Amino acid sequence: MISAPRPFYARTRFLVLSLIVFVVYGYGWKITGIDLGEIVRGAPMIRPLVVNLLSPDLIHYEKKSEIKEAFFALEDQGGFPAMSADKVSDSSLTVAPTAGKVGDKVVVRARGFSADREGTLIWINSIEQEYPLATFKTNSAGEFELEVMVPQTARGEEQTLRANVFWETGEWSFSPTLKLVAEKMLETIFLALMATSFAFLVAAPLSFLAAKNLMWKGPLRKSVYLFIRTLFNILRSVEPLILAILFAVWVGIGPFAGVLALGLHSIATLGKLFSEQIETIDPGPIEAITATGASALQVAWFAVVPQITASFLALTFYRWDINVRMSTIIGFVGGGGIGFLLQQWINLLEYNQAGTALLAIALVVITLDLASAWIRQCMALKE
User: Fold this and answer.
1) What is the pLDDT of residues 312-331, one digit of tens each?
2) Could you tell me the strand order of the sheet in which 59-74 lies?
């Protein structure tokens, strides 16, 4: 009697593999400190940042504003105020009570504002993180009263409540932030362009020496092939960020350091990709031209180049796209371009300006992607 095969989940191999996967991911979960509860608990902290990033500073209006502040003492774990709460910069904005814990309700009263104006009440903790509590509108006497809750973002000792009323008084214009971003974005595009062009000019000829189907003949050619391949692997293993730090020390902070860092890394990456394209070409033309007694240079020019031109250009445009995005990161360490501005704005908690830079980066990357797709399509039609 032939017994029926056991289901896959009852087989020893499946059980052993399942146990290995469970142990590996269990250990990985522990060692990386994954805590899904922190995503929920930290949501109030990240909300203002996301809101500001999604509100880029694009248009500038002539504005007039009125700002008043009051101070609040956050109680420590023992239930006592961590600091004195009598530090109030403007008696026209008051908070009662003047001390409390997270989750307590407080009443904010204000007077002396302009009448019938809308504004925002902002909670600022001791490390200058801002959290919008509520919006308000002053009455005909320039007063308002709100009951709010001490937010989860309250950290440290001294807390500040800021009432901000502003209104537009003039026509709109492009913001100074947008003009500065446009200037630095142009610098970033050309930084990536020069790095990619430099890399193409070096990587294209070297890729022929790193193609196994062309070089795996004789000890000398094999040695050259292994040397170039090893060089590509070494250069690719060093991140552009590290290279940018090196060149910023070498040639100084600025876009030139970024060009050198991205260019050197792109040589290795394009060289590897180009050589792999050469290794997949049709060997027929190579054999035919070699049979005529042509030199190695003639074989490469007439049998190889026509088959790889389109793919080389497509990979180069793709690398330019990558370099534009990578230039934003190397700018953090002095590589020039939009990344340097982005770092400054993030450090200063100016997230509206940072959102403008991120929007510009996204638009440029999308445009380059569409342009490279169009160029590849045109070349395909010509073929």
Assistant:
1) 888 898 898 889 888 888 88
2) 99-100, 59-74, 158-174, 118-124, 130-137
Rounded to two decimals, the pTM is 0.65
User: 255-279 and 305-330 helices cross at what angle (nearest 10)?
Assistant: 150
167 and 181 co-located in one domain: no
Q: Does residue 24 belong to any structural domain of this protein?
A: no
Task: Give the torsion through C-alpha atoms of 255, 335, 54, 59, to 10 deg.
Answer: -30
CA–CA distances in Å: residue 275 to residues 122, 156, 292, 344: 58, 57, 25, 40
Domain, as residue range, for 120: 64-172
Give the model confidence (pLDDT) of 8-38 as tens digits. 555 677 788 889 999 999 999 989 888 888 8
Yes or no: say if 135 and 103 are a contact pair by the CB < 8 Å rule. Answer: no
In a shared domain, residues 308 and 355: yes
Contact (CB, 8 A) for 121 and 132: yes
Q: Which helix (DSSP H) or strand (DSSP E) does residue 101 occupy? A: none
What's the structural domain count of the chain?
2
